[in-house]
Write a structure and sequence with these properties.
The complex is a heterodimer of chains A (338) and B (282). With 338 residues, chain A is α/β, with parallel strands linked by helices. In chain A, 27% of the residues lie in helices and 17% in strands. Chain B is of the alpha/beta class and 282 residues long. Chain B folds into 3 domains: 94 residues, Elongation Factor Tu (Ef-tu), domain 3 (Beta Barrel); 112 residues, Nucleotide-binding domain of ferredoxin-NADP reductase (FNR) module (Rossmann fold), CATH 3.40.50; 60 residues, no CATH class. In chain B, the strands form 3 sheets. Chain B has a 7-stranded antiparallel beta sheet. The N and C termini of chain B lie far apart (39 Å). The chains are: A alpha/beta (338), B alpha/beta (282).
Chain lengths: 338, 282
């Protein structure tokens, strides 16, 4: 497959020719211990898919082995089947995109019958993203998923911008966010990650509230609420008017959020995401304090992106003389290591 | 027939009327491709800020040479880059993707209708139909002469050809649907296949239905990924169980039974679509 060369290395960090295939010619790569622990769950490596960017894993099977990833994060599942919004649902933006899907999905019954067993049968670890319109719906989803084979973690999507109330998501209110997390924790048999929105004044306050309510870790960030207007029709491009901005355009915002939360709550595990296209992008998140990363919008550009990012990350760590991935987690907060 | 991701070198890139015909060396894609399937290409090169793939119907796919061809119309920054891409450039291509046209079990008489560069996938389809003994009539139309694609091809792959243009600059003045009654009325046509703009597909589907002829159409919906994960290319389609769903045109399509597509509801969320009731309040 075609390598994506380094996208953003204006700082002059070396580019990365020839490191994009999975089989590594040299021996240095293999010596890097890529194992990570996310919210108490040991994962063979730190690269995951991102919710809403990998369906439930099956569509990516022609391009990657879902079991080769740290885990597959599934598209947010709700109690009932959901049609999603009218089209147009997406707009391309500079180094990113807006989406306004509206959480289309088959509902928890079909997910438990078809999707989760498919992942389990392939030995993939599943981080199941759940979404609901009320605290009770979130709790019911956690109850339905408890004990399901293949389930490694729950990601509580309290921050999807594509909901009827738009900006007024649970993740914008520390008390509402805590209510959801507490209810899910009471029902869940696996560790719970709260997925946070960057569209808040103080993400550290929301993070702290979720942790206090029992969150075992935090996923950050969800998309930023955005909008594009068609200058021919004079109307919003998206049928849903506003949408979630993702892709490399939001990466600095995401790295900043991870940095701030890790600085304030250094003991809280973080799954970092937002515009990761390369191994070096992933490394930024780890250095900021994430224990693992999700590769999301990059999959639309390159369906094998998660395994490519993993291979690149391994190579880049080896080049820097790092033998254990866990050594770089949060390293940007410490004195320079060399 | 499973999709693969390949680095495909551009063999040639030539103007074809208002369009560009791009030939790529992609043996793994060509090997399993069926008429009606498409590819999704990354655009803009290694430093691109254009993240979304562009999807193109396969015009030709030759397993013997390993070459595939697509037809590109310039109408945005991604296609502007593509129509200028030089021979030798590697393109990141995923394909073949999507559900192809259904070939009949028995030879029959087929009418193939293409609008603009939407006619691209119909020529390989015509060859396949002729190979199994079917008679093929083609209708190729566009707004004007330079927006027609493949009229010369049509004459080599079809038993009869009607060319229409809205402005009458070539062929019969009018729409492709104007030519259909003359073909569907007397000839015992067993199937209609169409590809082109959505309004044309709807009109062709309705005309075919009025003559009780089965009709398959390859739809044009904008796609971000082409592989079924982004959920942007959906349209309302009636399932075999009679239930309407928002289905992905990249996976369940792009070829649909025209009678199952809820044409007038495309771009809306009909209240009776599965799961529309769950959109309230959240």
């Amino acid at each position: 497959m075609m390598p994506l060369a380094a996208h953003d290395h204006e700082s002059g960090i070396r580019e990365n020719p020839g490191s994009h295939t999975h089989d590594h010619g040299g021996t240095t790569d293999a010596t890097v211990d890529m194992v990570t622990t996310l919210a108490g769950t040991v994962l063979p490596n730190p690269v995951l898919t991102a919710s809403g960017c990998a369906a439930a894993g099956r569509e990516l099977a022609p391009f990657l082995d879902p079991a080769a990833l740290g885990a597959v994060v599934t598209k947010s599942v709700l109690l009932r089947p959901r049609s999603g919004r009218a089209t147009p649902r997406m707009a391309e933006t500079p180094s990113g995109m807006l989406n306004s899907i509206g959480l289309q999905g088959p509902g928890i019954d079909a997910f438990l019958e078809h999707d989760l067993p498919w992942l389990a049968a392939r030995g993939a670890r599943a981080v199941v993203s759940i979404a609901g319109g009320s605290v009770e719906e979130f709790a019911e989803l956690a109850r339905r998923l408890a004990g399901a084979p293949g389930l490694a973690l729950l990601e509580v999507n309290i921050s999807c911008p594509n909901v009827a109330s738009r900006g007024q998501v649970f993740a914008c209110d520390p008390l509402a966010a805590a209510d959801v997390v507490r209810a899910v924790k009471a029902e869940s048999g696996v560790p719970v990650l709260a997925k946070l929105s960057p569209d808040v004044t103080d993400i550290v306050a929301i993070a702290g509230s979720c942790v206090e309510a029992g969150a075992d870790g935090l996923s950050m960030i969800n998309t930023l609420l955005g909008m594009v207007i068609d200058t021919d029709t004079f109307r919003p491009v998206l049928a849903g008017v506003t949408g979630g901005l993702s892709g490399p355009a939001i990466r600095p915002v995401a790295v900043r959020c991870v940095w701030q939360v890790h600085a304030a709550l250094p003991g809280v595990p973080i799954l970092g995401m937002g515009g990761i296209l390369s191994g070096l992008d992933a490394l930024q998140f780890l250095l900021a304090g994430a224990s693992a990363v999700s590769v999301g919008t990059a999959v639309f550009h390159d369906p094998s992106a998660p395994v490519r990012v993993l291979a690149e990350l391994r190579t880049e760590l080896a080049r820097r003389g790092i033998t254990r991935l866990s050594d770089v987690v949060g390293a940007a907060h410490r004195e320079p290591h060399r | 027939m499973s999709a693969t991701q390949v680095s495909a070198r551009v063999v040639s890139n030539e103007p074809a009327g208002a369009y560009h015909l791009i030939t790529l060396n992609a043996p793994a894609v060509a090997a399993g491709a069926e008429p009606g399937q498409f590819i999704a290409a990354a655009v803009g090169g290694p430093q691109t800020a254009l993240l979304l793939r562009r999807s193109f119907a396969l015009y030709t796919a030759d397993p013997a040479t390993g070459l595939i061809q697509i037809v590109v119309a310039e109408h945005g920054p991604g296609t502007a880059w593509l129509v200028r891409v030089r021979p030798g450039t590697p393109l990141d291509v995923v394909g073949p993707l999507g559900r192809p046209f259904t070939l009949p079990a028995e030879p029959g008489t087929a009418v193939l209708v293409g609008g603009g560069y939407g006619s691209a996938p119909l020529f390989d389809l015509a060859r396949r139909l002729r190979a199994i003994g079917s008679t093929v009539h083609m209708v190729v139309g566009a707004g004007s002469a330079e927006r027609l694609f493949g009229t010369a091809d049509a004459r080599t792959v079809a038993d009869s050809v009607v060319v229409t243009t809205d402005d009458g600059s070539v062929g019969v003045r009018g729409l492709v649907t104007d030519a259909l009654p003359g073909l569907l009325g007397p000839r015992g046509v067993s199937a209609v296949y169409a590809c082109g703009p959505m309004a044309m597909l709807r009109a062709v589907g309705e005309t075919a239905a009025s003559y009780d002829v089965p009709c398959e159409v390859a739809v044009e919906e904008s796609m971000a990924c082409g592989i079924g994960v982004c959920m942007t290319c959906v349209l309302p389609v009636v399932g075999v169980d009679g239930r309407s769903r928002m289905v992905r045109s990249c996976i369940e399509g792009p070829v649909f039974d025209a009678g199952r597509v809820r044409w007038k509801d495309v771009g809306t969320l009909p209240v009776d679509v599965l799961g529309a009731d769950a959109m309230d309040g959240h």
